[in-house]
Amino acid sequence: MRGFSSDEKGFLRWASMNHSPSAHPFLGLSGPWLQTILMVLAFGIFSWTLYRRLGLLRRGKRAKRLDRPLHRMAWTWVYGILQIRQFKYPVAGVLHMIIFFGFLLLLLRSCLLMLEAYFGGVSEVGAVYAWMKDAAALAVFLACLFALFRRVFLRPSRYSDRLLPEHHSGEALVILIWILAILGSDAMFEAAGQALLPAEEGASPVAAGLSGYLEGMGQATLLQVRLSSFWLHNVLVLGLLCYLPLGKHFHVLLALPNVFLANQEPKGKLREAAEAGQAFEDLEQVGVGKLFDLNWKDLLDFLTCTHCGRCTDQCPAYATGAPLSPRAFTLQGRKLAYKSQPIWKQTNGNPDFWESGFSRDGLWSCTTCGACEEACPVMIEYVDKFVDMRRFQMEIGEVPEELQKPLQSLERRGNPFGKARLRAHPFLNSEKVPLVSDAVAGESVGDLYFADSAALYEPRANQAAVAFLELAHLAEHPLGSAWSKEVDSGHDARRFGEEGLFQELRDRNQSWLTSLQPNSVVVTDPHGLNALKYDYSQDLPVLHAVELVELWLQEGRLQVSNHQESIQVSFHDPCYLGRRGGIFEPVRRLISSLPKVELVEMERNRSWSFCCGGGSLNLFREELGQQRMAQYRLAMALETGADLLLTACPYCLLNLEDAAKSSNLQSWLGVQDICEFVLSRVSPENTHEKEGVKA
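Above: the chain's sequence. Below: its structure in token form.
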């Protein structure tokens, strides 16, 4: 089709205005009046439902979430706009990105069509935008069609949830069809317009293609098609706006705010039981027992959930058959919130959270590994909620029987194993790791090894700790110990809700740490690492053993023997070393520096690692799933073909090794602490022959 002269363009603009909905009545009303009525109704309904829904947040407790605004803006750009977490699931991620960015481009088009009812021709903004709009509309249309096909025929497993009595796929299908109808009505409106009047070459190629199918219609019929398509489009858009606060697609409005308001504390740091300036002892109630004991951001999480199922898909408890689904928990919380404050009825109740259908067994099945939070594209937080709920259960005495004994042992003996201090393994009280006393005149005692309970009282964990201390001795790096003073770090006592006991253990440890004033604290237990860094108030450098061993290898303070057989190893990232602690690469650099050692990664590695289920107090209770998490993890390791599975956590070591024995897998796959493995590859003779090595 040829281009037009300026006079022809002027005539066509005039003719287009005459065919605009603003110039023709519909259903007995003029275009401006009908559009005004629709918008008043739509925005009235939308405003009221939004007010009632967000009114739930006013009933939650206070939470500070507006600090560091520039950092939050950058965070929102990466996780909210660019949505980098979407690509963990490539197919769904690409579909979502096409629909998301396509809609951003088409939003201008929808706004212009609203104005078209008042100002004829305003929606025609030129060939460049017409091409961009058509490309976006076509991409979104195809993405929605494929998403429909995927939900109806392919049915990815994460779209269903055995713990959700209600299935939400029907709503997703309705929304996809709704979007297709919006796109289709817009295309028909424009196609009928092009059939009525010639269009300049290059303008709206999709409409030009569709207009060919309308050429046999008369002018009056084409005008009715154009008007009907226009008003259908506007009704669908305004109807979708009204529906958003009522369904799962509320996240269209809330996702970006929820990402902006996400927790910016380190991943391993827990929410405090008491607000700033308030003493724990003065609390009238500890933890969360009722819905509105949660803070307003927790309630916003409930409203923002997208139903995508990524959290549950990554949850090790759910994968092994335990009665825990993070998605079900959130949707049950949302349902309870909506029930407590309906759209059209005033209520002031504060229901017990268990009325939502969430089970206590589900609550205690959480390992606090954080896999659900790592997967969530809209930054919903789970661990803090679960810990707050456990705090309340502890307060009222609703504690699983299996946990009562280790918690009592922590209180009486300072360790969950229930062993007296005299029965601690004496490896620490030696020349290699001297027992240190209080610092004199403010002098530091140097670097201090904090053993924590497993290394002191569990024989297998003790062997792994001995391997690290032997490496420190070979590297001529002096380490002291205060094992006669230390008690359990309290890490898991806190995460199982025993806040008072945790504070008692923390205060006892902080007392002697203050008197010793070490340069740094070194640990072999990631749970102790996390507690000392984020749960204690002292500002001390805290290092995990793998960080030091990797440094010693880099500096040549440990020399590795070349007379070893080649071996393939896989590494299990402990949750509180990797996902919660951010220590991924030192381990991999360490392994890559060892001759004849090849690292073969499991599919789920680094921040996507799969929890073994052995974290501290979990060791003392039976899992509620059909299969142990450690067995599930071993199956992943076997798929790599590795000869040996390495880890860097005493509880992971105990749990994975026990699972290998109970499954008769020892001959197929060995399990070892990484310090034990490095020690087996180090040549002590070469190390001792070095000269001039300083600690």
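The mean pLDDT is 89.
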